[in-house]
Design goal:
The chain is mainly alpha-helical. Helices cover 76% and strands 0% of the residues.
């Protein structure tokens, strides 16, 4: 049950963290003559699609790594940040919670002015902390994410953070507190 809840929470987080495009199939090739930034956006969409529809985290990781390389080469911060969030998520699904946390920790100072990405990073860091058994730190990160999403009036992500907080309490066997969040 714990693993099912964790997978569900993590899955919901990723789908919206990098702007999943449910209509984008990785079976279509990006035209060779496409602008590099357009290629990178398509690769991010492919990564999101691959996770959402195919449950293939290794392929998704490859897409995010390629998008990240393009974003860094072109100096496009938006692509770089989205690719890093997707990459951190795929690394998290491999059980490399500390490495995922470190990627996000390095990213946070760079995205301070993008409140939505900042909140997404905090929430994902919180999910890593839950898996690492650092529940108090996870809760602080989740509360930071929750406050930002409330300020943004982002109801969907507010719900996701509440689910994550509930999962945090669930892992601590605090079922009453978990139920309050769900």
């Amino acid at each position: 049950m714990k693993h099912l809840l964790w997978f569900f929470f993590s899955f919901l987080f990723l789908v919206h963290s990098a702007g999943a495009n449910k209509h984008c199939s990785p079976n279509k090739e990006v035209p060779e003559d496409a602008h590099p930034i357009e290629k990178a956006r398509q690769l991010i969409d492919y990564g999101d699609y691959t996770i959402w529809h195919l449950d293939d985290f290794m392929s998704a990781r490859s897409y995010y790594e390629k998008a990240l390389a393009i974003g860094e080469q072109c100096g496009n911060d938006s692509i770089t940040y989205q690719a890093k969030i997707g990459l951190a998520y795929t690394i998290q699904t491999e059980g490399q919670y500390e490495k995922s946390y470190e990627i996000l920790e390095e990213l946070i100072p760079q995205i301070k002015n993008n409140k939505k990405l900042l909140a997404l990073a905090y929430n994902q860091q919180g999910a890593n902390e839950v898996k690492l058994g650092r529940h108090a730190s996870a809760y602080d990160l989740q509360l930071n994410a929750l406050q930002i999403f409330k300020d943004l009036k982002d109801r969907e992500n507010i719900a996701k953070v509440h689910f994550g907080i509930g999962t945090n309490f669930f892992y601590q066997l605090q079922y009453e507190h978990a139920l309050e969040q769900y």
